[in-house]
Amino acid sequence: MTAETNIEIQNVVFACPGNSKESYDRGGRALATFYADLLGMRIAREDWFVLEDADDLDGLNLAFGDGPIDYRPPRWPDSESPQQMHLDISVRDLDDAEQRTLKLGASKLQDNASFRVYADPDGHPFCLYGTATQAAPRIERVVLDCFSPRSLADFYASLLDMPNRELDTPERVVIARSDGRLPALAFQHAQFPAPRWPDPAHPQQVHLDLRVVEPNAPRMHAARELAEQLGAIRLPDEGLGHRVYADPAGHPFCL
Question: What are the structural domain ranges in the chain?
Fold first, then answer.
């Protein structure tokens, strides 16, 4: 990876119900408020709901949109309505965090030895891990479901310059940046029908917005060329004004 193709994750974008200004304001605002309260983030934009960390303006943002009015969320662990992507969040005390999370409107899905699984008010699963040393909850990993974790990890490791493998098994791979900046990316084995964006019959649930650092025409060209050389497939941009791709497992992302 060279400076000319330095690409980072800018937003994790959650689909939520809404196909008009009024319906989006209802659906997007409710989900944005949930995550803002859960993670101690602030709503930085309301025309398109975006959350940012007031203490780390260059860090990861969460955004909300892209859902039809009849958006069909995952129903994990129902294999007929599987998840595609989720967040791993670290907290200091799991019991305290659970009480707060449920009070905000989440539903508990599973209790494991080292982590617990919940669904947000629109059904997107997320995991809480009691591993934090900091006081506030923190997004540690964005987790992508896929058939071949090692293959998809290779794609994102090269695209995002994340060479460190914190875990490497056939079922789960975790990659990280050399400088330790979060989030890490994890890939876990699952069999599920991939999204076929923009087909509403096979919708995406969550996608990544990637940004080119200090963009200019040569850097953007190099980033697009790199993505396609690594195996990304260009998708219709639907007039969005930026390039939309699918990764080798079918997850859409914007560049």
Answer: 3-254
CA 3/CA 45 separation, integer angstroms: 29
pLDDT in tens, 190-201: 988 888 878 777
Pairing, β 172-176 against β 164-168:
antiparallel
List pLDDT tens digits, range 49-58.
999 998 877 7
- Report which of 11, 24, 90, 3 is spatially closest to residue 50, judged by C-alpha positions: 11
**Going by DSSP bridges, is the β-strand pair 233-235/252-254 parallel, antiparallel, or unpaired?**
unpaired
CATH number for the domain running over 3-254: 3.10.180.10
Characterize the bridge pairing of strands 85-90 and 125-129. Answer: parallel
CA atoms within 13 A on the CB side of 231: 13
Cα(101)–Cα(95) distance, integer angstroms: 10
Q: In three state form, how does the secondary structure of 115-166 look?
A: EEEEECCCCCEEEEECCCCCCCCEEEEEEEEECCHHHHHHHHHHHHCCCEEE
Single pTM value for the model: 0.93
Closest CA to 153 of 197, 189, 112: 189
**How far is it, in rounded angstroms, from Cα 191 to Cα 89?**
24
